Amino acid sequence: MYFKMFKAQGLAHLSYMLGNQGSAIIVDPKRDISEYLEAAQSEGFKIKYILETHRQEDFVMGSAGLKEVTGAKIVGGSHEIFKHCDLNLKENESLEVGDFTLKVLDTPGHTPESVTYALYLKGREDCWGLFTGDALFIGDTGRTDLIDPDKTKENAFLLYDSINKKLRPLGEQTQLFPAHGSGSVCGGALASYDRSTLGFELGYNPVFTMNKDEFARHKLHERIPRPPYFDLMEKVNWEGGREISGAPSFISPLSPDDFKRKTKNNGLIIDTRLPEAFASGHIEGSYSIWLEGLAVFGGWILEEDTDVYLVMERESDLDKSFKFLSRLGVGKIKGFLAGGFEAWRDKGMPIESSGYMPVSELRDGLDDYLVYDVREINEYEDEGHIRGSRHCYVGHLEDCIDKANIPHDQKIVVTCAVGHRGGLGTSIFLRKGYKNVYNLAGGMNAWNQLKLETEGG
Predict the structure, then answer these.
(1) Are residues 44 and 72 in the same domain?
(2) 279 shares a domain with 232
(3) DSSP code of 316?
(4) 435 pLDDT tier (thresholds 50, 70, 90)
């Protein structure tokens, strides 16, 4: 049997190809499907089936596009959310491909339609592996607040039973193949590696080490932010996702004069350079979202049809930028600044800058600054924060600023873990008209390295 895992950078999404006797299956495909097509061609496989474990919330699924190109059938469970599928399997029904069989198990809790595919090899009674979607991750489980935050506890109970009653009995030898790895917004404390077994998870995964009530409290404590683009994903993935339209080669490089003219009253400027570079000089009104962060925070800032203009460190970063936003289904890249920020600077165009403050300077003058901590609430409470700092997750910062009535001459320091989210937060304050804004260099990691005072809770 041929097996390959594909990892989507930024989203921490994992998808899989199984091949046997000339036929292949793809599990939970991403929107950009070229890797699957290339792998199938290289191995001499025809893609026959596309398996979905659930309606993905954090990226545009590639099922529809892959079906269009290959003619493969989309397979899902029996829940109505899988109505777009060509083949709907009820619990315990199986799909046979060559020398292996995939058995469907209903595993709701993360979402009501979630299913797990249990893989059995010919002539073997024990389960070889589980494609768990977002039900069971390596190190944790999927979040249980997505469908209704008020039912987080109820769904936690449901997920606990799904995993312990249906998956746990399949044996310690069973390998796990989830739809996401570390860094995903679909779960909490996911492990930093992508391979595990049920036997290994039994020793440390909360769904196995806690009783049901403890597990429910664990899920209630997660409080993971829900990006606004998730609503769009629910709509788009109801039909199995969308094909990618356009390509990086169709996006125009713009001279500084053209860039200025195009962005004057239209669209948003996204600066994908590192926060240090942004702080030293940038185009007024830009959002600072570092390149890898675009894969997540593009979904917080952009809507489906927002026109986007990019300022990049390298023109070769366009491919990644296009890919990241395409996976989120947001933003239409209309152009990029040819020659990068240096071309803008050399043309004598207007430049805005912001502060980049070392922790020692903030330590010595803390009472002179309003500190905003833009990490997630669990980071702020559990890992400690700077005395007197205010908390607002960076994805909600624009609303927080609007409600806070902060004087525009207030000196503000924005902090996160290392400075990336702080850079985005700084740019949001600048866009709101605040000029005395500083990103804390190194963030809380640097603050803690110097063993400076923090508060908990």
Answers:
(1) yes
(2) no
(3) G
(4) very high
